[in-house]
Task: inverse folding
């Protein structure tokens, strides 16, 4: 099977497993795990922020990041297909007490006019106040779209003018960085808080980080523990993340090339599966094909060969 359903399906490489097996570890709740500390320091430095917090999932990293900038009863504005509002199962409301309103963009991008219209000032007891804006880079349900830097800069200006915080869901910010050449600190400087994932295109088995100021991270470290997310010898997982950062960022170029190979091939999931290609249906006429560490050029070409005739047939069938 060639598995194109998601970039979360990758197996750790042998080199990654070796790094995990050799990791120096300690009790992270005591702050004693040198590998976790090294990972947190590395990721904070990569984005030019003061601190980072290692979490089990991207959802938890986003949840902590959002609650750090949106108080209970205030609102977050985001795009209607954003992961925070569609796929985190209501955690921002259920745990964070956060409400959301959304703008809509066909590819998940910033729409400044719509955003400016949505921003609600503090009117005391009359309206929910907007506290933060959130964007996703790259935007998953938008089709893996990269947020153009100009749009992000313009959004930052709106945030500053309206005294709002900016959250970036950077689960796949590494892909945006590799695709555009925009340095990670440039992305980091635009955000007050971020969530970034190691378990997507970077191929680590587990792990994400919330990134922000030292005070914010210290506060959310307490919340991570409160929510049951404190962990002990998590250095075995941090070592996988450190290995991924060292070896799996630049190679995302390959995934992007393979994705281009597949760009014309949207086909019927069941037929593709019979022929050895797993894809994900995300709409009646939309398939999700994700290239990753375990799909090499030969596999991408083979998948394209299998999918292309299916696409032609399905188009011909209307
Ligand atoms: C854009 C985006 N943000 C956040 C997440 C959450 O990550 P996790 O599945 O680790 O909770 C995902 C998961 O696919 C995602 O695509």
Result:
């Amino acid at each position: 099977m060639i598995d194109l359903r998601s970039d979360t399906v990758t197996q750790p490489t042998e080199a990654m497993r070796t790094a995990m097996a050799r990791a120096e570890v300690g009790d992270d709740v005591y702050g004693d795990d040198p590998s976790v500390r090294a990972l947190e320091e590395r990721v904070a430095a990569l984005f030019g922020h003061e601190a980072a917090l290692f979490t089990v999932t991207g959802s938890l990293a986003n949840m902590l990041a959002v609650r750090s900038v949106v108080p209970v009863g205030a609102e977050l504005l985001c795009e209607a297909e954003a992961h925070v509002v569609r796929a985190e199962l209501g955690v921002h409301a259920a745990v964070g007490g956060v409400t959301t309103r959304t703008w809509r963009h066909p590819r998940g991008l910033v729409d400044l006019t719509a955003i400016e219209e949505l921003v609600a000032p503090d009117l005391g007891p009359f309206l929910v106040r907007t506290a933060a804006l959130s964007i996703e880079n790259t935007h998953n349900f938008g089709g893996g779209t990269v947020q153009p830097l100009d749009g992000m800069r313009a959004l930052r200006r709106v945030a500053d003018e309206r005294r709002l915080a900016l959250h970036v869901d950077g689960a796949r910010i590494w892909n945006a960085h590799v695709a555009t050449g925009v340095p990670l600190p440039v992305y980091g400087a635009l955000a007050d808080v971020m969530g970034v994932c190691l378990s997507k295109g970077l191929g680590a088995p587990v792990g994400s980080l919330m990134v922000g100021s030292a005070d914010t991270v210290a506060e959310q470290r307490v919340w991570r523990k409160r929510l049951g997310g404190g962990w002990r010898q998590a250095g075995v997982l941090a070592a996988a993340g450190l290995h991924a950062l060292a070896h799996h960022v630049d190679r995302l170029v390959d995934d992007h090339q393979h994705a281009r190979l597949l760009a014309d091939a949207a086909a019927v999931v069941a037929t593709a599966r019979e022929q050895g290609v797993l894809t994900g249906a995300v709409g009646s006429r939309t398939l999700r094909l994700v290239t990753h560490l375990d799909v090499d050029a030969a596999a991408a070409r083979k998948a394209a060969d299998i999918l292309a005739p299916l696409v032609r047939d399905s188009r011909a069938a209307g």
Summary: The pocket of pyridoxal-5'-phosphate is lined by residues 57-59, 62, 83, 136, 140, 169, 171, 197, 199, 208 (CB under 6 Å). Residues 69 and 165 are 6 Å apart (CA to CA). Residues 297-316 form the longest helix (20 residues).
